Known about the structure:
The complex is a heterotrimer.
Chain A: H1 5-14, H2 19-30, H3 42-52, H4 68-75, H5 82-98, E1 108-110, H6 114-136, H7 140-148, H8 153-156
Helix pairs in contact in A: 1-2, 2-3, 5-6
Chain B: H1 2-17, H2 23-31, E1 37-42, H3 44-53, H4 60-68, E2 69-77, H5 81-92, E3 98-105, E4 108-115, E5 122-131, E6 136-146, H6 147-153, H7 162-169
Antiparallel strand pairs in B: 1-2, 2-6, 3-4, 4-5, 5-6
Chain C: H1 3-25, H2 28-44, H3 55-72, H4 81-84, H5 97-113, H6 116-127, H7 132-139, H8 143-165
Helix pairs in contact in C: 1-2, 1-3, 2-3, 3-7, 5-8, 6-8, 7-8
Amino acid sequence: MRPTIDQLIQKYWDGESTLAEEKQLKDYFNSGAVDDAHMSLAPMFRYYRSESEITTDFVPDLSFTQESKPKVRYLIPKIMGIAASLLLLLTVTYQQLDMDDTSYNNKYTEVENPDEALAIAIEALGFLGTKYKKGTTPMSKGLKNLEKTDVFNFTKN
Amino acid sequence: MKHIITISLLLLMAFSASGQNDAITKYFDQYRDDDRFTMVSINKKMFELIANVAEEEVDDEVMDMLKEMDGLKILTTSDSPKQFYDEAIAKFNTQEYSELMTVRDKNQNIRFMVKDTDGGKIVDELLLLVGGEEEFVMLSFVGKIYLNKIGKLAKNMDIDGIEHLEKLDK
Amino acid sequence: MQVKEFNILVGRLKDKMYRIAYRVVKNEEEAQDVVQDTLVKVWKIREKLADIENVDAYCMMITRNIGIDKIRSRKMDTTDISEQYDLKSSAPDPERLSIVRDELRIVRAIIQELPENHRTVLELRDIEGHSYKEIAEMTGYNLDKVKVYLHRARLKLREQLNIQVI
Lengths: 157, 170, 166
């Protein structure tokens, strides 16, 4: 048996109504068919409904989702080789830059967006560091000794 | 608007200031309009700007390097990579650039060249020539490059085996 | 979470965030700031959202907290709350408007007089339709407290309405 409005109201005051029942009450009180006996409660339920329908014209600035910094992190795959990471990054950069500037057509880019520049620099330094490490680690002991003197003299002449 | 003007001015200044005549610039310029090459250049002023936009997202080691950098150029081609690699090796094997090491990694040869005026651990330019079967890539890092810091750049990268190597190191 | 999914989330939650923020800071401009700051924060932790059971409620918690921080960080404003409270709401039937407005104004004034924690729980439940569990998560009150606060708030509302309407 469906509870009557009176029963629902009682449950509401007792703190035993469910969300669905509360919605039912709001619907009822916002309908055109409210019993006179219930009229004193109508403002409350109408207030609830009208407050829940407030919207804002405010348009949030979502440009922060476009920054390339975090994206770079996800772009950086395992450093398999320069092809995979750098070229992908460069391609992405081009696609973004190409849209509104024809001067990039000759495939030469002077990076003018700090975020892009940072992304590329991080990628390049990561590549550099990885390869450098690879080159120095197996002989790290020897290299350390060398560094104490002068690491370059032996290649200079 | 103010920002745009400032940035444009900085860029303009940077552009006019970048008329260096070192070998690497010449080499890059040689292929600047060549369709087979993709080239990206980041100039000194841009590195100064970077220091401002970068925040907690960037690791300290990377940030340290970025602050000391004056330029980064990357040139890549997938057109006859072997030939361009050899050509570049020949071109930069001069008094000015000395070979630091060559790393063989999978099917790639990576030659590290440095230009350094006072023979210390800090070099003025570090040049990477990467020759593979598919690509030839040239990376030029200009600025104050601390060689002892470079290895640390790899620390946070996700590479199999690196942790292992670090343990061996100790 | 990708940009696209995030934009969907923004579309879904923006108004609700604004309402929640407004009820905390009671000022349109600051409420907008809160929404903006909340979205930045949500974006920053977007990778974690996958592990969150109830993303909407979680976002509302962040909204509320940022709103609370906002009022803590400013000097107490002594302007009459009920006067400031002048949100645009989608008007129902224009003919009934003025009567309804007066009615609603009375209800609003009564709710504003409730103790802060009672008011918060009442608004989250009866206006926004959140479950007790969600309200507990958003406010940090335990479930029993949420129920007690809500019950007291409703009873107070009934009492006041009886006085005002009669």
